[in-house]
C-alpha cells in the first residue's frame, strides 16, 4: 500500500483542554461546579477560565513557564486545571499538607513564576518564600479568597500579593483565544512526588499523556454522561487522577468541598445525589467507621487506589451501598493504569471471597500498552501469585521524565519499560497484585512517605544514635511510620515515645510523623553495617495493627 504521510488536518496535538470548549457548547446551561451556596454552569466555568488565562497572559505568563497552586478542592483549584495550561504554561499543584521547607524546595526546583495561594495557606507559603536564598528570584503571588474562611492576617500579609483570584478574572478578556500546544509532547503538568529520596522529584506530563489517561479513566470506570462527582480525592494528588478534565468531557457536576469528614461526605451525597467519588482506602475506612454510616439511598460508585485496600474494609464499604472499584497508578502515570476489572462469574462467590479478589490491583487499562512483573534479568515472572518481581509498564500516559534529573529518569526507563520500583506478583489469571514496595516507601492515607526523610529528621534529635523507619499496619490509615531508635551512649535524660513524636511534629509535616516509637539498645545490622529493615518490619508486624490512629 502507498505510504501516506500525516497532514495538519489529521495530526492536531492531543490535549484534554478542548473538553471544556465542548462542555460549554453541549452542557452550557447545566451545573459544572457546586461549592457551598455557589453554583456555576459549564458556560460560566468556560468563560471564567478563558478570562483568567487572558489575565495571566497579560501578566507575562508564557508557554513553558511553571505556575504553582496550593489550594484545597475549591472552584478555583478546579478552574486552574484549564486556565493555567490555556496560556501554554505548566500547571504545578502542591500538596497542602507539606511543610514550608519542602514547599520552598519544590518552588525553587520548579522555578515557579507565579503561585496561586488559598487564603488558609498564606502563612505557609510566606514562610516557604522566606527560606529562599537572599538573591534568588521569587514567584509572584495571587490570593484565592473564600468568604467561608475567616482569617486574621498580619497587616503586611496582603501586601505580599499581586492581586486576588477574582480580581484577575474580572480583568480578563472573555474572547481570548487559548494557547494550543505546538506539539502534543509539550509539557502540561509538573507534579512532585517525594518517592524514596530526601528530595522531591518533579514528574513532567505532556498534553498527549494527559489526554490518554483522561479518556482511559472514563472508559475503564464506565463513567456515564452527567455524573455528580464529589471531590473527596485531593486535586493535588496526581491532578485528581485526571478527573478535572474527565468530568468536563462528560458534562458532569463537580461537588467541591474544602475539608471533609464522614458526616460532611454523607450529607453531600444525600444533598446532591452524588453518583461518583474517589479516594484512598483511608477514605473508605473513615466512611465505614463513622457513626453516620447509614446505608445509602442509592448506590454510589467509589474508585480507590493509593494503597492496597484491606479486604475487610472493602466488604464493610460495599455493605453500605458503595460500589467499589480498585485500581493502581503512580504520579508518574498521571492516574490509574491498572484496574481490578470485574468478572461476572465472581458475583456468585461469597462476599468475603469477592472482597479478596477486589483487593488485587488487576489488569492494565485500555490506554496502557503493557504491564508486567519481571525478575532480576528482566524476564517475566511465573504467573503463580507467589513469585515476586518488579512491576514494569509501557504506555502513552507514562511521564516524560523527572525534571532536571536525567539520572533518575534513566534509572526508571530501561529496556523500553518504565520500572515502577513496586514489587508484586502476577496471578494465573493475569491479574497483578502488589506485595511490597521497594526502597521502603510507606503509604499512609494515600500519601507516599519516604522513610529516608523521616529518618533524617530523627537523626537530628540530640539523643538519637541510630534511626530506621518502616511501615506498621494501621486500622485507620492503612500504614503509618514506625520508628526504631537506639540512643547515644551516656544520654542522661532518655526521651520518651511521646517526646520523640512531639519533636517530629515540630520538624516535619504531621502526616509523616511516626505513630509508633520503639527504643532498642542496638538496631539489627548486616555484616557491612547496614540496618536490616526486613527484621524491623517483622517486629512491626508482630505488634499488630495500630488501633484508632489519627493524625
From TrEMBL:
<dbReference type="InterPro" id="IPR025110">
    <property type="entry name" value="AMP-bd_C"/>
</dbReference>
<dbReference type="Pfam" id="PF00501">
    <property type="entry name" value="AMP-binding"/>
</dbReference>
<dbReference type="GO" id="GO:0005524">
    <property type="term" value="F:ATP binding"/>
</dbReference>
<dbReference type="Pfam" id="PF13193">
    <property type="entry name" value="AMP-binding_C"/>
</dbReference>
<dbReference type="InterPro" id="IPR042099">
    <property type="entry name" value="ANL_N_sf"/>
</dbReference>
<dbReference type="InterPro" id="IPR020845">
    <property type="entry name" value="AMP-binding_CS"/>
</dbReference>
<feature type="domain" description="AMP-binding enzyme C-terminal">
    <location>
        <begin position="453"/>
        <end position="530"/>
    </location>
</feature>
<protein>
    <recommendedName>
        <fullName>4-coumarate--CoA ligase</fullName>
    </recommendedName>
</protein>
<keyword id="KW-0547">Nucleotide-binding</keyword>
<dbReference type="GO" id="GO:0005829">
    <property type="term" value="C:cytosol"/>
</dbReference>
<dbReference type="GO" id="GO:0031956">
    <property type="term" value="F:medium-chain fatty acid-CoA ligase activity"/>
</dbReference>
<keyword id="KW-0436">Ligase</keyword>
<keyword id="KW-0067">ATP-binding</keyword>
<dbReference type="InterPro" id="IPR045851">
    <property type="entry name" value="AMP-bd_C_sf"/>
</dbReference>
<feature type="domain" description="AMP-dependent synthetase/ligase">
    <location>
        <begin position="21"/>
        <end position="403"/>
    </location>
</feature>
<dbReference type="InterPro" id="IPR000873">
    <property type="entry name" value="AMP-dep_synth/lig_dom"/>
</dbReference>
<comment type="similarity">
    <text>Belongs to the ATP-dependent AMP-binding enzyme family.</text>
</comment>
Amino acid at each position: 500500500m502507498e505510504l501516506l504521510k500525516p497532514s495538519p488536518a489529521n495530526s492536531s496535538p492531543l490535549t484534554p483542554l478542548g473538553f471544556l470548549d465542548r462542555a460549554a457548547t453541549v452542557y452550557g446551561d447545566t451545573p459544572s461546579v457546586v461549592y457551598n451556596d455557589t453554583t456555576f454552569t459549564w458556560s460560566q466555568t468556560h468563560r471564567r477560565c478563558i478570562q483568567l488565562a487572558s489575565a495571566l497572559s497579560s501578566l507575562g505568563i508564557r508557554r513553558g513557564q511553571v505556575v504553582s497552586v496550593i489550594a484545597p478542592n475549591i472552584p478555583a483549584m478546579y478552574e486552574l486545571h484549564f486556565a493555567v495550561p490555556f496560556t501554554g504554561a505548566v500547571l504545578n499543584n502542591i500538596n497542602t499538607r507539606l511543610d514550608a521547607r519542602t514547599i520552598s524546595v519544590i518552588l525553587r526546583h520548579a522555578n515557579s513564576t507565579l503561585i496561586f495561594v488559598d487564603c488558609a495557606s498564606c502563612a505557609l507559603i510566606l514562610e516557604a518564600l522566606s527560606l529562599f536564598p537572599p538573591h534568588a528570584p521569587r514567584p509572584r503571588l495571587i490570593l484565592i479568597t473564600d468568604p467561608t474562611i475567616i482569617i486574621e492576617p498580619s497587616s503586611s500579609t496582603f501586601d505580599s500579593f499581586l492581586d486576588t483570584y477574582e480580581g484577575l478574572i474580572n480583568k480578563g478578556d472573555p474572547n481570548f483565544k487559548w494557547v494550543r500546544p505546538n506539539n502534543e509532547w509539550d509539557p502540561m503538568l509538573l507534579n512532585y512526588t517525594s518517592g524514596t529520596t530526601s528530595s522531591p522529584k518533579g514528574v513532567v506530563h505532556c498534553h498527549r499523556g494527559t489526554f490518554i489517561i483522561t479518556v482511559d479513566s472514563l472508559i475503564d470506570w464506565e463513567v456515564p454522561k452527567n455524573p455528580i462527582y464529589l471531590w473527596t480525592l485531593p486535586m493535588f494528588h496526581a491532578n485528581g487522577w485526571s478527573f478535572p478534565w474527565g468530568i468536563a468531557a462528560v458534562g458532569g457536576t463537580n461537588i467541591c468541598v474544602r475539608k471533609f469528614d464522614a458526616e460532611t461526605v454523607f450529607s453531600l451525597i444525600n444533598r446532591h445525589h452524588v453518583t461518583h467519588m474517589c479516594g484512598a482506602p483511608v477514605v473508605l475506612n473513615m466512611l465505614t467507621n463513622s457513626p453516620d454510616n447509614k446505608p445509602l439511598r442509592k448506590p454510589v460508585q467509589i474508585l480507590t487506589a493509593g494503597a492496597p485496600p484491606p479486604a475487610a474494609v472493602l466488604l464493610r464499604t460495599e455493605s453500605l451501598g458503595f460500589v467499589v472499584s480498585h485500581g493502581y497508578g503512580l504520579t508518574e502515570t498521571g492516574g490509574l493504569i491498572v484496574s481490578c476489572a470485574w468478572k461476572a462469574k465472581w458475583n456468585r462467590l461469597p462476599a468475603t471471597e469477592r472482597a479478596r479478589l477486589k483487593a488485587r490491583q488487576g489488569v492494565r487499562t485500555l490506554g496502557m500498552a503493557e504491564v508486567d512483573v519481571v525478575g532480576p534479568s528482566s524476564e517475566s515472572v511465573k504467573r503463580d501469585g507467589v513469585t515476586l518481581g518488579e512491576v514494569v509498564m509501557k504506555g502513552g500516559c507514562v511521564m516524560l521524565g523527572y525534571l532536571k534529573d536525567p539520572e533518575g529518569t534513566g534509572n526508571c526507563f530501561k529496556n523500553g519499560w518504565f520500572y515502577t520500583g513496586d514489587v508484586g506478583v502476577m496471578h494465573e489469571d493475569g491479574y497483578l497484585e502488589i506485595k511490597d514496595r521497594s526502597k521502603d516507601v510507606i503509604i499512609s492515607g494515600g500519601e507516599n512517605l519516604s522513610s529516608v526523610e523521616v529518618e533524617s529528621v530523627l537523626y537530628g534529635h540530640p539523643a538519637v544514635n541510630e534511626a530506621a523507619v518502616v511501615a506498621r499496619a494501621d486500622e485507620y490509615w492503612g500504614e503509618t511510620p514506625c520508628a526504631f531508635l537506639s540512643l547515644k551512649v551516656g544520654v542522661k535524660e532518655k526521651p520518651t515515645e511521646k517526646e520523640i513524636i512531639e519533636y517530629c511534629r515540630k520538624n516535619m509535616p504531621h502526616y509523616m510523623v511516626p505513630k509508633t516509637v520503639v527504643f532498642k539498645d542496638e538496631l539489627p545490622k548486616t555484616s557491612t553495617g547496614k540496618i536490616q529493615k526486613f527484621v524491623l518490619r517483622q517486629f512491626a508486624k508482630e505488634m499488630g495493627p495500630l488501633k484508632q490512629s489519627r493524625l
